[in-house]
Fold NADH-quinone oxidoreductase.
Amino acid sequence: MISIEVDGRKIEAEEGSMIIEVADANGITIPRFCYHKKLSIAANCRMCLVEVEGVKKPLPACATPISDGMVVKTQSDLAEGGQKSVMEFLLINHPLDCPICDQGGECELQDLAMGYGRDVSRFCEGKRAVVDKDIGPLIETEMTRCIHCTRCVRFGREIAGIREMGATGRGEHMEITTFIEKSVDSEVSGNIIDLCPVGALTAKPSRYRARAWEMTQYDSVSPHDCIGANLHVHTHRNMVIRVVPKENEAVNEVWLSDRDRYSYEAVTMRDNDNRRLQEPMLKVNGEWQATDWETALDKVASKLNMIAQTDGAEHIGAISSPSATTEEMYLLQKLIRGLGSNNIDHRIRISDYSMQDNESLFPELSIELSELEALDACLLVGSDLRKDQPLAALRVRKATRHGQIAIINARKVYNNFNVLHEIEATPEDWLQQVAGVAKYLLDEAMASEDISADGLGYEGLDELLAEIKVEQSHINIAKMLQKAESSGVVLGLAALEFSHAATLRMLCRAIAGLSGATFGIMTHGGNSAGAYLAGAIPHRGPGGADVEEGGQTAQQMLAEGKKAFILLKTEIGKEAVNAEQAKASLQASEFVVALTSYTDDEAFEYADVILPIATYLESPGSYVNVNGHWQDFNACVQAPGQAKPAWKVLRVMGNLLELKNFDYVSAQDVMQEVKGRMGAVGDRIKARWQCPESLPTDGQCPEPLNIYQVDCWTRRAKALQKSALAEGKEGLKRPKLSPFHNILGGV
């Protein structure tokens, strides 16, 4: 630590820090446009000029490192004179669009112009104008407003890993644009809107909807993946206008994926879009009729009671979306178990449950997301992070700056980070490729410690792998993990959906254990961890409690059929692995009740009662992310018509079925009951080793869900559905880099 003086204040700071970083850390305001704490230093706007004692001219605070004894003045005549001169130059060509600009009221240029700008411009010539380019359905451009801070350019190059924006021309003719006038197709492209300090880049779906000061801000959590990105939801007149990131370094830093940002369009449907379900619907003689809540719920209760008493409760099943809230899934399992059935599941995309009794309390990453970027080595198995968990991909990308990444997948994926070792297997050969890495590590461990596989805690693994041939590609990956001080093995969604997922998971656990790496799983939906904790699985109750007799999994229920189904926020025909078989099973069922928010839900094809429920932005609740962090939120807007929060609907259903302890007043009451079932941390269920019986060669991988088809909300977000990724296009592939790229500052 060294000592410097800023505006008369003595400050201790780390050597090598920039003046602007020290000022920010100590509450000293220095104006800036190009500087951003998450991006590299460009020093091209010069707005942060400060006076440093002993230096004749002002220096840019963002690019000037501190030294011991340095004296800095941010408000001297020299500093302010430089700042005002820079502001005058910036305003020479900037249009007076403030009255119509979406950025008005929260514009950095507008704010700083009030403090450092002149009342009247001395520039009398014509202003520069730029022709706007259409860069896609998500981002609106007004590039005449651009001040060339290059934040958007640096974000694509350094954070997103896809260089879609760049500068052309020189001097007054310089423009920020896309390469070859293509659209911006990155899955995190919307972040350049937040980074833009002016109104050059704004959100296209919310353009001209409301002014910044008219909107009310609420906090929420994204339901689309297991990261649980934190959101600021901006509303006006009970309509969601836009969504922006809420800073949380432990979860999403300051970023959002595009589906986190734009899926709100499925909540607030505009332009005469009447897809929101606003009243209960009842099928009478094959025709759908609107009805009231009392009639609909009485029908549900009487039918479920009749089937439970006549055929037995085991003929009733419940399937939830993995993105339902913890409270909703807890009440759903409480209702179904109150009837006498353990047929409850949320794992719609999983087909292999053969070792589920040996799983941990819930599937988790095992390390914090912030630690993911610090790994020296990471093996990704069955993972397409860019599409499955875009914000986790940004963390892994940062890890490649100092660490190494290896991938074993059963299909080609396009990453936004460098991969050192990659094995692209076939589904039939996938297990053998993973087993090759495990065999090398096992043989090394047994030889070095002169101990058997049983003694290492992997009983039977040596016999299982006896016929596996170890190849150089396997050795490379194994040594990468062994040599690293910190390493991880992470399973993705494709690994969970694999037809022999349990065997694959056990092999990867062995690789992690034998190499000293941490083992983690990236799960489906926004609340798979919460589903496990709430008991929305057939083999365990809330908090991992034992059940007398395990129920059937989602795939078993849909394959064998049930007399009655309760569906919560899920569209089986679009989400299940065997979609056609699942729909046929539901159509053959005697009674199906669906809790949904939409009139175009496929449940109208097979349900008997459809109940309108609130979306994730219209109901309170909580999600548990892949690190086990509970994140609760409140409703941001009211649901339309007669739609109700799902937890309230399930509470009333429990009361009508005369089940005990359904007298909750709020969602918070439900959450407290769930947490009360967790027990002490030391009682957490740990994963147990179970050696697979064989290594099958008939593996199958279902077609993955499109990034914008993962749940009922992303499917109905119009802007997302118009994007290149929704059409299955990969967008710009990462260009081949020259040998001088790293020297010039690329990553």
User: Anything to note?
Assistant: The mean pLDDT is 92. The CA atoms of residues 132 and 142 lie 6 Å apart. The chain has 23 helices and 26 strands. The domain at 281-357+526-681 is CATH 3.40.50.740 (Rossmann fold).
